[in-house]
Design a protein that fits this description.
This protein has helices at 2-26, 224-256, and strands at residues 36-42, 45-49, 66-69, 72-79, 86-88, 95-98, 102-106, 112-115, 121-122, 128-129, 136-137, 147-151, 156-161, 164-170, 173-175, 183-186, 189-191, 200-202, 211-214, 216-218. The protein is of the alpha+beta class. It has 2 domains: 2-81 and 222-256, no CATH class; 86-218, no CATH class. It is found in: Bacterial flagellum basal body.
């Protein structure tokens, strides 16, 4: 019976939907995390009576026809790149982006990754790195005797060495035409893809690029109420599709008992 297969596609779709929602909820406290949303499309249709078919020699036509769908499939798990709330940390090397842009990170294999997570540290040489030890581009080294380290809204890293003000480097941000097309690889990192387009690198505040907030980190843009509401809707949709399978099974059982 066709209804069994159609309802099965609905259950599979809602199972994936719940997995996406659970990942969003699991990352509610992940710095710079961007929530995902499952998007669905209906499957191919079988035309039992095509709309517009002639029904007489006088030229009358079928106005709507008869089409039977074959279910649903997952089309995409799009990422919502809206701004997360900046949260005060009071740590001098913590930086949040207010607006568009990503920090550029050097991976060990030479690839450039991108992140909204500005929880930076200084390694043994004073270089500004991520919590995994990956260097921030362009390379910025802060001397071990530097005091009063500041990172202004335009990305200039400054401090005081032996009583004299010094500039240690300039943080730059990368923008993308389609930031939703970036490939997530875990560890709060993204990679450029053909869908995202090439990075557009600017100093913070230039060419529609966002500015920086020192002593802040960007929180995940996950809203618990929205996710729980979506979870309930997905659960109910899953239950209704299971009811369809149950009803189809009972109908088949009834027909098999006919004599």
């Amino acid at each position: 019976m066709r209804a069994l297969h159609i309802a099965a596609t609905g259950m599979k779709a809602q199972e994936l939907n719940v997995e996406v929602i659970s990942n969003n909820l699991a990352n509610m406290r992940t710095t710079g995390y961007k929530r995902q949303r499952a998007e669905f499309q209906d499957l191919l249709y079988q035309n039992l009576r095509r709309a517009g078919t002639d029904t007489s020699d006088a030229g009358t036509q079928v106005p709507t026809g008869v089409q039977l769908g074959s279910g649903v499939r997952t089309a995409a798990t799009s990422r919502i790149m809206s701004q997360g709330t900046p949260e005060l940390t009071e740590k001098e090397t913590d930086v949040a982006i207010k607006g568009e842009g990503f920090f550029q990170i050097d991976l060990p294999d030479g690839t450039t990754a991108y992140t909204r997570d500005g929880s930076f540290e200084r390694d043994s040489t004073g270089q500004l790195v991520t919590v995994d030890g990956y260097a921030v581009q362009p390379g910025i080294t802060i001397p071990d005797n530097a005091l009063d380290i500041t990172i202004n809204s335009e990305g200039s890293v400054q401090g005081t060495v032996n009583g004299a003000n010094q500039t240690f480097g300039q943080i730059q941000l990368a923008r993308f035409t389609n930031k939703g097309g970036l490939q997530a690889i875990g560890d709060n990192l993204f990679l450029e893809t053909e869908a995202s387009g090439a990075p557009i690198v600017n100093d913070p505040g230039d060419n529609s690029t966002g500015t920086l907030l020192q002593n802040y980190l960007e929180a995940a843009n996950v809203e618990a109420v929205t996710e729980i509401s979506d979870l309930i809707s997905a659960q109910r949709a899953y239950e209704m599709n299971s009811k369809v399978i149950q009803a189809a099974d009972e109908m088949m059982q009834t027909s098999s008992q006919l004599r």
